[in-house]
TrEMBL record:
Annotated compartments: Membrane
GO BP terms in the entry: amino acid transport
MF-aspect GO terms: transmembrane transporter activity
Organism: Streptomyces pactum
Record carries keyword Metal-binding: no
Topology term for the membrane: Multi-pass membrane protein
Coiled-coil ranges (or none): none
Entry protein name: Amino acid permease
UniProt entry keywords in alphabetical sequence: Membrane, Transmembrane, Transmembrane helix, Transport
């Protein structure tokens, strides 16, 4: 069979035109096999749910208390959010031109070639799988804390792991029912998050008798890292915000299931970032104003400093109720991440990149959902979190896999788009003359924070305090390189695949069961 040659890019439809997304997908080389049942709000909702300020901010708040304190948390959030918005804007522009489930790696492949696509895909995939593990294990930790408050449950590592596995199973099952249910749950998640922030901040503003002063909230600097340089500590403290602002590529991964995806997916990325930026600042400020005892909050026996703030300010019953709000938000977040990761598994397998690709790219004829890819995503996430049974440090390593994989992958398509210049054909959502300044700002910022991710966060550096992000990055790149020499002949997007004469990309997309 003949295969299409690499197109220079069809004329982009005008801003007022609604592009035929099924035809656009065929032009990009893929036969539509997923159900296009998600609207623009649902696409925004999945990225907003994955960013999940009630997950990231609450989980990492304790880190922020010691790495710069209130001043770095609040001003760092404001500054980091601005730079992340630049990354999102630049990525959204490329997403509009290439709205496929493969998202980042497909963009990199088209703009830079097979190897760029290959390494971007592996960074993105392992980052997504690490995100499922980190989010759902975090939800298991918070669930254990809630059960301890309510019924004296002792959250041992073994019991926490059982809760984690149960959460993974629930998320797998929910994702098997089809993208429409996923979209509905994500839409509910948006309002749950916003109402949850309003409820938490409102309760902490009204109920406690004592609040910290504005000068404390916006200027107090705390260094409990062991490092002497305030500048270094402030830089490390930025990671609270940067860790939270990840996962917005979910909108791109759901492109093939979104109506008017060339516009909706791009808007979904940008909207998810700025809404999270504003709501997250309100949440961090509300928590910090309500701190009753700084040292007791940092060293709380609950292991969750925000839970101690709620306990001190609202009492056991109030704290338990709001902790439950946070847990449900984390569950929404994990469910959205399973959806995004499974679409990445499906797309990467469709292009022959994974071992057993023929299985992972199959799609259910009834729900038009990549069932095998969903199961693979949750199983790998479970395996990544298993070391947490033996070491609390392992949970930090899982988080490192997430951020060190996903964040550089965001900048690669943007860098290649800048390098391509006029050879890049924009989609209907474009930055116009702002494309280059915003794009270069995004690339420089990602390079900077990637270095930050790898720096040691505590001194002295020991086995328990070591930052394993650099190790995670090295392992990911090593695995990708080794597998490249095994699978490079089978891997390729429709216009670059080195398939035999009897194989065609359309046949690869047929995998419907």
């Amino acid at each position: 069979m003949s295969r299409p040659s690499r197109p220079s890019g069809p004329p982009a439809p005008g801003p007022s035109a609604a592009p035929d997304e099924e035809q656009r997908l065929r032009e990009l080389g893929y036969r539509p096999v997923l159900a296009r049942r998600m609207g623009g709000f649902g696409n925004f909702a999945i990225s907003f749910s994955v960013i999940s300020i009630l997950s990231g901010c609450m989980t990492l708040y304790g880190f922020g208390l010691g790495a710069g304190g209130p001043a770095v948390m609040l001003w760092g959030w404001a500054g980091v959010g601005l730079f992340v918005l630049c990354v999102g804007l630049a990525l959204a522009e490329v997403t509009s031109a290439y709205p496929t489930s493969g998202a980042l790696y497909y963009m990199a492949d088209r703009l830079g070639g097979r190897r760029w696509g290959w390494y971007t895909g592996w960074l993105n995939l392992l980052g997504l799988l690490g995100a499922i593990a980190g989010i759902d294990y975090g939800a298991a930790l918070f669930t254990g804390a809630f059960l301890n408050l309510q019924w004296g449950f002792e959250p041992t590592p073994e019991k926490t792991m059982l809760i984690f596995v149960a959460i993974l199973l629930v998320h797998a099952v929910l994702n098997l029912f089809g993208v429409r249910l996923v979209s509905v749950l994500n839409s509910i998640s948006v309002w749950w998050h916003l109402a949850g922030v309003a409820l938490i901040v409102g309760a902490l503003a009204v109920v406690p008798d004592h609040h910290q002063s504005p000068s404390f909230v916006f200027t107090e600097f705390v260094n409990d890292t062991g490092w002497e340089s305030p500048l270094y500590v402030a830089a490390i403290g930025l990671l609270l915000a940067q860790y939270t602002f990840s996962g917005y590529d979910a909108s791109a991964h759901l492109s093939e299931e979104t109506s008017n995806a060339s516009v909706s997916a791009a808007r979904g990325i940008v909207r998810a970032i700025w809404v999270s930026w504003l709501a997250g600042f309100v949440l961090l400020a509300g928590l910090t104003f309500a701190i009753q005892d700084y040292e007791a909050t940092r060293n709380t026996e609950t292991g969750v400093p925000p839970a101690q703030i709620l306990l001190d300010g609202l009492g056991t019953d109030g704290a338990s109720a709001l902790l439950l709000v946070v847990i449900v938000a984390q569950l929404f977040c994990g469910n959205a991440e399973v959806a995004a990761a499974s679409r990445m598994v499906f797309a990467f397998s469709r292009d022959g990149a994974l071992p057993g690709s023929a299985l992972w790219r199959t799609v259910s004829a009834r729900t038009q959902t990549p069932v095998a890819a969903v199961w693979l995503s949750v199983v790998v996430a479970c395996l990544l979190a298993l070391p947490s049974l033996y070491s609390a440090t392992a949970y930090g390593a899982v988080t490192a896999i997430n951020v060190i994989g996903i964040t550089p992958a965001y900048a690669i398509p943007v860098l290649l788009r800048l390098r391509a210049g006029d050879r890049f054909t924009p989609g209907p959502w474009s930055l116009g003359r702002w494309s280059r300044p915003v794009g270069w700002t995004a690339v420089v910022w990602v390079a900077f924070v990637t270095v930050l991710f790898c720096l040691p966060q505590s001194s002295p550096v020991t086995v328990d305090t070591m930052n394993y992000a650099a190790v995670a990055l090295a392992v990911v790149l090593a695995l990708a390189t080794v597998w490249w020499f095994v699978a490079r002949r089978s891997y390729g997007t429709p216009t670059t695949a080195a398939y035999g004469d009897d194989r065609d990309q359309a046949e690869l997309a047929e995998g419907i069961v």
